[in-house]
Amino acid sequence: MMRRIGNWLEERTGMAELIRPVMSHLVPRGSAWLYVFGSATLFAFILQVVTGIALSFTYVPSTSQAYQSLKFITDNSALDHFLRSVHYFGASAMVLMVGLHMLRTFLFASYKYPREASWMSGTVLLFLTVSMGFTGQILRWDQTAIWSVVVGAQQAGYVPLIGPAIARFLLAGETLGGATLGQFFALHVFVFPILIVALLAPHLWMVIRNGISEPPKQGRPVDPKTYVAEYHALLERDGVPFWPDAAWRDVVFAVAMIVVIVGLAISMGPPHLAAAPDPTNLIAAPKPDWYLLWYFGVLALIPHLLTPYVIIGGPLVVFAVLFFFPLFARQGERHIVRRPWAIGVVSIVIVAIASFWWLASWEPWSPRYDAPPLPPQVVGTVSASAQTGAQLFHDQGCEDCHRIGKFGGFRGPNLTYVGNRLTGVELTWRIANGGYNMPAFGGMLSSQQLNDLVAFLETRKPSLTTGSK
Amino acid sequence: MTDNPTNPTAETGAAGDDTGRRKFLSRLSIGLGSLAALIVGLPTVLDVLKPMVAKEPRVWRKVGAVDSFKVGQTVEVSFENAGTNAWAGKAGATAAYLRRDGTNSFTAFTVNCSHLGCPVRWEPKANMYLCPCHGGVYYANGDVAAGPPPRPLARYPVRVTQGNVEILTTPLPIDGRVPRSS
Predict the structure, then answer these.
(1) Residue-wise over A42-67: b if at least 16 C-beta within 10 A, else e?
(2) Residues A293, A400: one domain?
(3) How far apart, in Å, are the Cα atoms of A133 and each of A69, A80, A172, A265, A273?
(4) Is CB count within 10 Å lower at the N or C end of chain A?
(5) Cβ B119–A178 below 8 Å, yes or no?
(6) Structure confidence by residue, pLDDT tens digits, B24-35
(7) ipTM of the assembly?
(8) Domain B60-168 fold
(9) Within-domain flag for A268
């Protein structure tokens, strides 16, 4: 019975005729576990589409109600709660898999002839994936989200000439308002997913047309004149059908990925919702989700004068380099051992991103507003003037950026033992006049206050701070 | 380019006429299709992009009676935006820092750090604004004291009318055209 229905359908649709060659096309042997990240990205994307559609049944894209609907999704319905978690960890998985897919493609030099266009479409897909992450975070529409919109608009504002227009587009006006959320909802739910699908189609078609790249061998450089013929000869000699010889690994890995996503979703729950969105509530510290956190660190640490150039030039240069470089490296050796510069580039990029990540995770540049007054055991037995100075150290905001013992911020130098380094005159001069990253307090402190503060700082020597360690 | 000999339509009509006719028909189809795409596509694109050029009215908003502010003090005030929608909820309001400089003189600062727009916090004891994002610091007069901000805190036009302090609604300070404080 099923067979007859199948035959009836096949006669009219030809679906099997269409799919069979795709399934049975020959792929090079040895294309093992490192080749699973592309399909894993695709599966993560499908997971995002499915869970995203499900969430849209409940989510209300209204500036005044989105937060309440998210609260409802998170707190009132176990299944919505689960889906929101999966959507978040699915997004994380998609970003991670895109990264690994790209890393593998680069290290195997699979972007060389005839697969340059695969890499180029992949570059656009990478930026679209990150854009989906950013716009998705905005749909959370909490304090962090609305201030992230402001930060996004401000960054766009650095673009020459059209910057303010782009910023107004993101805000849907001149300020945050009732129309702002609609922009991000439309981008996240319609525009970017449609662009992703539109680019995925050729990206996947080219896998069929050009075949997956064979594992690189030393001394077998790509020569565009002969490569295609050699590749087909290799398949004839030693190829295996894609289904199931290669596809089973894709399936196993994707299933493992989904199990991990579901496990994380159940054990960790959806991302934290900050306070309700309110542009007049200034207690907010917008921070991107993990995959862009390192960039947040970059923006804090680049030399201040370079900021406008890095904000605009940085992403543009990264995109242009990624997008165009296969055109300049379309032939030659593919094996990593013969491409030492590739190892260098990858190592530098990974170390740089990891460092910025680590820094952005504890933000040493950010003032510690909540640093408590220094306790007596840290202040120690000092003169009355120095006692007052210790209080000023907290009240005047010194402690927001400077550390004494285990208390205070990290922005400025640690002052635990500053009495060993600087004399009273030097301290007075520095506090009054400020420095590169130090405000000048000359106009804000009375001379008595300045004297008290310096009196306190002069006592900061190893012998007096025994209680602080 | 190869005609299918079994195709009956290809056999009818003179072969010589067909090339010109087909050229005409394909051009006609592409032309008409482009026209249709244009007459609905252009308004669609313009509609989506219209926030880029939309101008909102400037309105003076009361933020409090003059007497409710102490000379020398900086406080947070808020006011309704000019061109906001009914469904904006709280997102339709803007906050500002207001400082009473003298009997009838006020300065109103935007709350947005000039670096990337994060909300700066006024620290009354320290007499400075501190930005939580990347550590920008401003003096009480809005000038940059430390950190990455490239410009002083932007200011709103502010006036005193009939015993009330009023702030003029102003776009988010994203375009860099900010009055420099002395």
Answers:
(1) bbbbebbeebbebbeebbbbbbbbbb
(2) no
(3) 20, 19, 20, 17, 16
(4) N
(5) no
(6) 999 999 999 999
(7) 0.87
(8) Rieske Iron-sulfur Protein (2.102.10)
(9) yes
